[in-house]
Amino acid sequence: MTQPAMAERTIAVVSAGLTTPSSTRLLADRLTAAVRDQLDGRGTPYRVVVVELRDIAHELTNNLLTGFPSRELAAVLESVVRADALIAVTPTFSASYNGLFKTFFDVLDDQALSGKPVLLGATGGTERHSLVLDYALRPLFVYLKAIVMPTGVYAASSDWGTGAGKLHPRIDRAAAELVDAIGNERRAAVDPFSHPTSFEDLLNS
């Protein structure tokens, strides 16, 4: 008896690094590679969509000012909304996520991530800021009703190079949690434009 083909999963990766090269993008790539390994090991077909926020920074600002996304930004937002899971990584600024990261999730509809598994990552200069995951990122995604993985990954400067050995087990554990959370059932994508806020409601808000 022929087994039915397993549904393809889409993993969206959002990186808020501001420089090139970026340690934030490097951490996002390591997390993505670990998730790929997990999916390969389980025979699950997948597609990865990477969103580098610095490339759409002006589009995000214009969206905040006008209330409407450009065609390019709308396509990016839709790719994240329709993904089966999200990897979100930001540099640490003033003990929190950076403004570019927050702007992206401000522009995204507040119901768009409801029920979506999310793996969180952050980078910083020292280990002192590692609680940014639990004190800043996790509350944001709980508010957005996402399913946040128990293991978040923070990488300080000392975690790269010879210190990377300590980082790998945490990355692998977080990736396994994300792939477990995706499960076998495809989630219904939330269309953020299906019930737009009326102009009257906007005036009354």
Brief summary:
The protein has 205 residues and is α/β, with parallel strands linked by helices. It is 42% helix and 19% strand.
Which short descriptors sum up this protein?
7-stranded mixed beta sheet, 7 helices, 205 residues, 19% strand, 7 strands, globular
Provide a descriptive summary of the structure in words:
- It is a single chain.
- This protein is of the alpha/beta class.
- The chain is 42% helix and 19% strand.
- It has seven helices and seven strands; from the N terminus they run E-H-E-H-H-E-E-H-E-H-E-E-H-H.
- Helix 1 packs across helix 6 and helix 2 packs across helix 4.
- The longest helix is centred in the N-terminal third of the chain and has 19 residues.
- The mean pLDDT is 89.
Number of strands: 7
- Compute the number of helices: 7
As a whole number of angstroms, the C-alpha radius of gyration is 17 Å
Measured as a percent range, the helix fraction is: 40-55%
Average pLDDT reading: 89
The run of helices and strands is EHEHHEEHEHEEHH
Taking the sheet with the most strands, its summary is: 7 strands, mixed
Class derived from helix and strand content:
alpha/beta
Molecular shape = globular
Which segments are poorly predicted (pLDDT under 50) over 5 or more consecutive residues? none
Proportion of beta-strand residues = 15-25%
Intertermini distance: 58 Å
